[in-house]
Amino acid sequence: MPDLREGAGRGAVVSTDNHETLTLQINTSGAWRNVFSFNASQRREVFRVVFILGQVLGESARWCFVDGRGKREWLDVQ
User: Fold this and answer.
1) Cα–Cα distance between 32 and 1 in angstroms, integer?
2) Which end of the chain, N or C, is less packed with Cβ atoms under 10 Å?
3) Which residues pair with 22 in a beta bridge?
4) What DSSP line would sit under 14-51, residue for residue?
5) Distance, first Cα to last Cα, the chain
6) Alpha-carbon distance 57 to 13, whole Å?
7) Do 74 and 9 meet the contact criterion of CB atoms below 8 Å apart?
8) Whole-number Å distance between alpha carbons of 28 and 61
9) Is beta strand 21-27 parallel, antiparallel or unpaired with respect to 72-75?
10) For residues 42 and 10, which has the higher predicted lDDT (pLDDT)?
């Protein structure tokens, strides 16, 4: 299981408060697509689901969380 501490993903770290909305994005063909938006307090639970999906989809999928300012947190789920 991956490290679920805040900011444990690759690249830019998104600092969040628990009232902020984050968006999960996926890239499977060169373009980022929104999957869904959620409250930052649910970040851990969403990451657990992304980890499972990442194992199924493999290296063909890249994932990130995006905050309201457009800053990305790259998720390493491999």
Assistant:
1) 25
2) N
3) 38
4) PP--TTSEEEEEEESSSSEEEEEEEEGGGHHHHHHHHH
5) 10
6) 24
7) yes
8) 5
9) unpaired
10) 42
Which pLDDT score, from 0 to 100, does residue 12 have?
38
Q: Which two tokens stand for residue 66?
A: 């995006």
Q: Name the residue with tokens 């990130």.
A: 64
* Closest CA relative to residue 65, chosen from 28, 11, 29, 19: 11
**Are 66 and 72 a contacting pair, CB within 8 Å?**
yes
Q: Which two tokens stand for residue 70?
A: 């457009």
Residue 2 clears pLDDT 60, i.e. is over it: no
- The Cα–Cα gap between 20 and 37 comes to 10
Inform me whether the pLDDT recorded for 23 exceeds 70: yes
Distance, CA of 66 to CA of 46 (rounded, Å): 13
